[in-house]
Write a structure and sequence with these properties.
- By secondary structure, this protein is of the alpha+beta class.
- It folds into two domains: 56 residues, ATP12-like; 156 residues, Orthogonal Bundle (ATP12-like fold).
- The chain is 56% helix and 8% strand.
- It contains ten helices and six strands.
- The strands form two sheets. Strands 1, 2, 3 and 4 form a four-stranded antiparallel β-sheet that branches. Strands 5-6 form a two-stranded parallel sheet.
- The longest helix has 24 residues.
Length: 238
């Protein structure tokens, strides 16, 4: 649909803050009123709607924060246990645990960039994941997977929407949690998630399709990181 409203705003309502379009509370695709727990997130979402050009087609690319909030309300609330499980399962195959055997420069780069994140997960959450060389699958300790499951479960419904998206995009629940807990910013999370691809670009050059895909990954990570930051203390369940 095309832009149909003239003004956007925010007000405080039952359960949090609402985004207003021409004075009326906006609704999610499932027709629930979009209510978020912080004014900062509501204002950022309203700013997305305000930035849509007049008479332009409205699509998800214009509204990444609104989309994450609506997904949290419409889908995560009703399927919370499933979303937690689908996010935490990445602990069993986390990107950071699979290391190259050659060339030496890539091996060294993975060690320098990825190992500190695994060390952080071990220290912060008691989740000591095992690394492996090559493409062979490695079984992760049950205790480590359980600790990361607990860390995911601590997030509120809206935060889970972003954490799932971020984990899926990065291929790493450790990266997702590190962003949520401000251990990584969006740029560093992108660099960690795309390290192998960026290494190959440096060596062999790029192509338009790969570049377009990486730009989509960058935007997704940036949106999720910003969303989690705007949730402030409401990121975790009370």
């Amino acid at each position: 649909m095309k832009r149909f409203y003239k003004q956007t705003g925010v007000d405080e309502g039952e359960g949090g803050f609402r985004v207003l379009l021409d004075g009326k509370p906006m609704r999610t695709p499932a027709k629930a009123v979009l209510v978020v727990p912080t004014r900062a997130l509501a204002e950022a979402s309203a700013a997305e709607w305000a930035a849509v050009p007049d008479k332009a087609e409205i699509n998800a690319a214009h509204l990444p924060l609104t989309r994450l909030a609506a997904t949290g309300i419409d889908r995560v609330v009703a399927r919370r246990a499933e979303v937690i499980a689908d996010t935490a399962k990445y602990a069993g195959s986390d990107l950071l645990c699979y290391r190259a055997t050659a060339p030496e420069s890539l091996v060294r780069l993975q060690q320098e960039l990825w190992q500190p994140l695994l060390d952080w997960a071990a220290e912060r959450h008691g989740a000591r994941l095992v690394t492996a060389e090559g493409i062979g699958f490695v079984d992760q300790p049950e205790e480590a997977k359980a600790r990361l499951h607990e860390a995911v479960s601590a997030h509120g419904d809206l935060a889970l929407s972003a954490l799932y998206n971020l984990t899926h995009t990065a291929g790493s629940v450790v990266i997702g949690l590190a962003v949520s807990e401000r251990r990584l910013d969006a740029a560093d999370a992108f660099a960690a998630a795309q390290m192998d691809e960026l290494y190959q670009v440096d060596r062999w050059g790029d192509d338009p399709l790969a570049e377009k895909h990486r730009e989509g990954v960058r935007r997704d990570i940036e949106a999720c990181a910003r969303f989690l930051a705007l949730l402030e203390n409401a990121r975790l369940r009370g």
